[in-house]
């Protein structure tokens, strides 16, 4: 029986998720793109993927901070194109503040999008993966799933939690042809970092470009950002047969940040 390879990449309208979608499409994997952008814009993006790579591509718009919205999204995908057998939980948000000033609504939002959403998509996607005896769950955690930085209580809690949940998923599914892993990027130049670049520029009285370089030097020996396309290549490798025994891991792609 031929294997269905259809990937849902949450948050694939921007940054790392978009780059992952490109790498999977180049390899001929059908896509379910997802984000907050209006349906009409997402449809154009899906059409562009189809034209460029010849893969089937659809877009679903859903705010995944809500559990019931995720249930509806997964039902919509199943009825529109069929089951998802590669799940990339990538959507994520950030907010920085000292813990005693951390806004409670931001805490709730970050835990919902960066952690709970991955629980819901995973629990809903697993039965189809198990049914075909093959599946891949790839969770985009962060270096902040492995180490901490100041002012990132919610983000670090969510990203550490994602690694824990991934390990449990891996244990439960290892004998069923389904792997679950985390990728842990360091600084990657995407819209997620814009506020942190601005804050660094304010605090150090530098320009925006100097702030970007300053942030890199503050954390990692590798003197550049992580390339989103390289993260996409790692996702693609984890989808390959060569990665069938890689499960329950958390892979840094962080320019040496966590080697300290
Ligand atoms: P980004 O802001 O470019 O993309 C985030 C995506 O998530 C967007 O498509 C957005 O629409 C989607 N999203 C956000 N909130 C959502 C919600 N409520 N419902 C549905 N979709 C929502 O950011 P990015 O840097 O590409 O981040 C992707 C992932 O990589 C995140 O999980 C982030 O934590 C992680 N990450 C990023 C970096 C970095 O340096 N940029 C480093 C480590 C990990």
Automatic annotation (TrEMBL):
GO terms for molecular function: 3-hydroxybutyrate dehydrogenase activity. InterPro entries: 3-OHbutyrate_DH, KR_dom, NAD(P)-bd_dom_sf, Sc_DH/Rdtase_CS, SDR, SDR_fam. One of its GO terms (biological process) is monocarboxylic acid metabolic process. Its EC number is 1.1.1.30. It comes from the Bacteria. SUPFAM superfamilies: NAD(P)-binding Rossmann-fold domains. Keywords: Oxidoreductase. It holds the Pfam family adh_short. Residues 5-190 form the Ketoreductase domain. NCBIfam families: PHB_DH, PRK12429.1. This is D-beta-hydroxybutyrate dehydrogenase. Belongs to the short-chain dehydrogenases/reductases (SDR) family. The keyword Glycoprotein does not apply.
């Amino acid at each position: 029986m031929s294997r269905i390879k259809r990937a849902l990449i949450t948050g694939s309208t921007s940054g790392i998720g978009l780059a992952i979608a490109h790498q999977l499409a180049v390899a001929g994997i059908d896509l379910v793109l997802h984000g907050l952008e209006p349906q009409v814009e997402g449809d154009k993006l899906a059409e562009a993927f189809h034209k460029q790579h010849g893969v089937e591509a659809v877009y679903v718009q859903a705010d995944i901070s809500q559990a019931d919205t995720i249930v509806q999204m997964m039902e919509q995908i199943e009825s529109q194109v069929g089951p998802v057998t590669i799940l990339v939980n990538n959507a994520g948000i950030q907010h920085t503040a000292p813990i005693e000033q951390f806004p409670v609504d931001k805490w709730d939002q970050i835990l919902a999008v960066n952690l709970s959403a991955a629980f819901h998509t995973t629990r809903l996607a697993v039965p189809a993966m198990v049914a075909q005896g093959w599946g891949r769950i790839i969770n985009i955690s962060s270096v902040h799933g492995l180490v901490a930085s100041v002012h990132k209580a919610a983000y670090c809690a969510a990203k550490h939690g994602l690694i824990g949940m991934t390990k449990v998923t891996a244990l439960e599914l290892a004998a069923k042809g389904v792997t679950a892993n985390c990728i842990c990027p360091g600084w990657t130049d995407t819209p997620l970092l814009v506020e942190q670049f601005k804050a660094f520029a304010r605090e150090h009285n530098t320009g925006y470009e100097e702030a970007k370089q300053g942030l890199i030097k503050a954390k990692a020996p590798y003197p550049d950002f992580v390339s989103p396309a390289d993260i996409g290549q790692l996702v693609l490798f984890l989808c390959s047969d060569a990665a069938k025994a890689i499960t329950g891991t958390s892979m840094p792609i962080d320019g040496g940040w966590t080697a300290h």
